[in-house]
């Protein structure tokens, strides 16, 4: 065992078990991983936690990661591919072997792959560990995802807007971190300077307002808040966009209150600036996550393919403005020429919210209702985060009827927590509109079909097992039953057409079915039987939840009708 | 085309054939696929 670096502290526990986190994706994901690991480090000092990350993302974040991880292994592709244009594949295999040999010095008990990219899944396969979670490939080149939270992440994240969990909470669940008993106390901002940090950029055009819109917000913010100065931050490749903002004639009279730091700070320096500020405003990007790490209040404007429930900065009272545009959130590959979602959040709403946050530090639903025109709020959602049962939830502060996706996210939250963690979520019944009521009724029919298909799958899995254990098993019969099971996939896709909100149920089952455990026909069929069994249970839970939601809606309507009749 | 690309293409064709004939891959094959994925990701990153 290696000596603990905390060995001078008599209260510390020497780490005995090595846990490796594999996170090959970008800055934002690394910061969110760090947020999840922060709690693990506090509650489980017996773990030696190592990180395996790409050099270009992990090194600039060393000021965050080095505090949390006992060691970081940097996968440096520049080094690996160095000279390979001349030396060929052999040179890069040598480079990779060198990296793997460094890692082989670790005795890894548990390897958790959090990145779900093709490369991280193959790398996970090559790292020696007693137990592996997350995705990895087997020697048949089949992807293996064996733990339920990773299966859920793989089935729902990037697959639409129905994942109810923040990415940090999903990561925490994959690692197995229990919710914190003591809530993090909000930091006092009294000692901070009157600085607002703005990052008006994001990785894609569809997620970013045009500089002109930001000019309007900056103009209004500086005009309304005379004691504040504003810092624009960003990367080197965003300098030209920042210049477009700062050089706009409308902002000329405020030039002494605008500091353009774009392209001039390291991430550590940027984090230090955020720690001094009273507010951060920006799109979905890693700067918001850095702000959350330093407990700087955040106001995020989510556009395009951003899913606020997943990536709103992970802290209490993080504010998020997102459009109520029908196609929001879209997929990164969807064609879009107009970006209607960019127009559905008026800049006036942002500047009004900024003023309130700077003056009061808090925005309530009642204030929004009383003080902000419904013209400004009619096409937007305004969320505020809070923690419930250890999960971050977003409450919509604008009083408007929930849409079908909102309702399904709540139902899925209850279902997944129950199915995977055996935990009951206490969420109140949502108010239904005629549209959401109709959508729920359609889904009931869809769930009924899925339930029948799951029972059908159980039946034919059982037939195969019976046939195999008979004295003279018939190959023809086994083939016939297998064919019946294969038909389920096609029938499911028909259900999906009429009840698209059931996609997470179908996708979760598809991942489960692709990861059946066992060798040989008997073990695999047994595993298939249990997968269908779990599938039918999942459908039953969702069915019951929807049925109860509709009943509650009917009861409420009846109560209102009776009350009105009594008043007549 | 540089030597790395040529080598990768040749090796990937060989691995594909193995997969098609349901022959089990070995660690060296997995390393080739990993390097090809990393190379591809680096290329997208640079765009």
SS element count, helices of chain B: 2
Write down the Rg of chain B.
12 Å
| Secondary-structure content class of chain A | alpha/beta
How far is it from the N-terminal to the C-terminal residue of chain B, by CA? 18 Å
Mean pLDDT of chain A: 92
Could you tell me the mean pLDDT of chain B?
91
Report, as a whole number of angstroms, the end-to-end distance of chain A: 80 Å
What is the name of the CATH topology of the largest domain in chain A? Rossmann fold
Quaternary structure: heterodimer
Number of strands of chain A: 15
Task: Name the shape of chain A in a single word.
Answer: globular
Low-confidence stretches of chain B: none
Q: What is the 3D shape of chain B?
A: elongated
- Count of all domains of chain B: 1
Biggest sheet architecture of chain B: none
Write the layout of secondary structure elements.
The complex is a heterodimer of chains A (568) and B (47).
Chain A: E1 17-23, H1 27-43, E2 47-54, H2 55-58, H3 62-68, E3 71-75, H4 77-81, H5 84-87, H6 89-103, E4 108-113, H7 118-126, E5 131-133, E6 135-137, E7 143-145, H8 148-156, H9 167-175, E8 195-199, H10 211-224, E9 229-232, H11 239-246, E10 258-260, H12 267-276, E11 279-283, H13 286-293, E12 298-301, H14 308-311, E13 319-323, H15 340-343, H16 347-360, H17 365-371, H18 374-377, E14 380-388, E15 391-396, H19 404-421, H20 434-469, H21 475-498, H22 503-514, H23 520-567
Parallel strand pairs in A: 1-2, 1-4, 2-3, 4-5, 8-9, 8-11, 9-10, 11-12, 12-13
Antiparallel strand pairs in A: 6-7, 13-14, 14-15
Helix pairs in contact in A: 1-9, 1-13, 8-9, 8-22, 10-11, 10-16, 19-23, 20-21, 20-23, 22-23
Chain B: H1 3-20, H2 27-46
Helix pairs in contact in B: 1-2
